[in-house]
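forwarding from the other thread:

> can someone predict this with zinc ion?

sure thing
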Amino acid sequence: MQTLSPLSTALLCLLAAAACVGVSPDKPLPGSLTGTTDDRATLNQRFLEMFARAYYPGRSGQIMLVPERGDILLEPNDPFYRFMHGSPWDYDVEIPLILHGQGHIRQGIFDAPVTHRDIAPTVASLLDVPTPVTMSGTPLTASLANAAEPPRIVFVAVLDGARRDFFDRFVTDLPTLNRLKNEGAWYSEARIDYLPSLTSVGHASIATGAEPRVHGVVANTMYDRRFARPSGPFPDLSPASLHALTIADLWNLNTQGDAVIIGQGTTARATIPMAGHGGCLVSAQSTIMAMFDGTFGGWVTNDECYRLPSYVANDKAARLWQSGETWLGYEIHDSSTLLRTGRFITYQVDALVSMIEREEVGKDEVPDLILVNFKTLDYVGHRWGPDSDELAEALRDLDRELGRVIGALESAAGDNNFVTIIASDHGTPGEPEEPENARYYITDIIEAVHDRFDPTERRVILFYGDPADNQFFVDRSHLENLGFDLESVAAYLEALPYIFSAYTEDEVAAVSGR
Ligand SMILES: [Zn+2]
């Protein structure tokens, strides 16, 4: 981020006329932020600090971006992704957080500002286990009832892509979530305090209680210069890049493998953090990790660190499309279509409930841990948006299926013997006020940067992958050979009408080290 003089902005606009329509160096604050006292400079600094909390050398990009509030950055021509989170705006960072468990959790509305990092130390507190220094969040003690005995089960459900306001807008329609919210502790000011706001970083922060710059999972896709190719955070389903103990790890080590620990979800970036390092940690035991693999059409694991019960491995999703099921009239004919329906949640909970029953969860004095990513709201939100009938229906499906999980936990442990924690990894933007004018494509950003800085070779951007990462990877030495630096790229981007601010790796690194 750099403050531009009107003259330099004008110069940039001359150099890239097409991309600079309507640019003013003093762009006004978005109207919907009226009521806040923050000016652009304050927000610029806050967003810089949020990126700094998730800066990890070698893994983070060289340019970090914030789109203007309401504007959406996408890949072109992808009907499954018409809405995209990742920003610091309210709709992406305000998250729900509920703690529920009679005898263990106090009832009430708590307005303390809390964040992802506070969840793992809260579970540690319920289990009465000391936390490692990386778990830097604060236990939510105000809502803990200090029960004489720990709960027999702690169930952590991460509702991928659930905005906090879903719990105001829809909750009366949702008997299970409504009950948990009303009987339990509702944190009305839970918020993400790092960037980008997306699945991998969210789940890793919830699971470890660490800042992303400590646990090391800082983007959905990175560019690995060793092999000159993009990489997800958990290649081959290995947890190796997660550089902090998770709550599952801590409990695994403390109980020497006596606790049942189950991590379940869709995609490696959501599921591996939930499961932790399993038996790939020194002195730890293998735990259950069940990840839905869309290509395979069923549940998979990594046998080196985890195990997968055969009754789960054998339940292939093809049974749903072979039986001709539909959802809201949409045909289900493969994993990709299934994942964008509430029907997937039933399939997921079938597996989860059978694990609760057959692994004897909650049956002895050693508390068991169940950590689950529910991906469906995110996929449905990406495709149809948070205000769609599809999203409302997926929420009703999720509520019903969560009720089934809680019923299984009640049967396993008794009514007053378990704690449920409901949170989300991030939110989602709504339909822009001018839908046709507020969707922008990362391919156009790449083109514009290459037109401006590297028109001949067009390779100064090494990689710009998942739009939600809000960062891209630059060949710095090539850029310098072309006579430019990162500041010039950031300044150019910040002058685009749909970019609120752009930061260089150097700025972010300087703040991150403080
Ligand atoms: Zn998403």
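Residues 85, 161, 199, 378, 382, 468 surround zinc ion (CB under 6 Å). thats all i got for now
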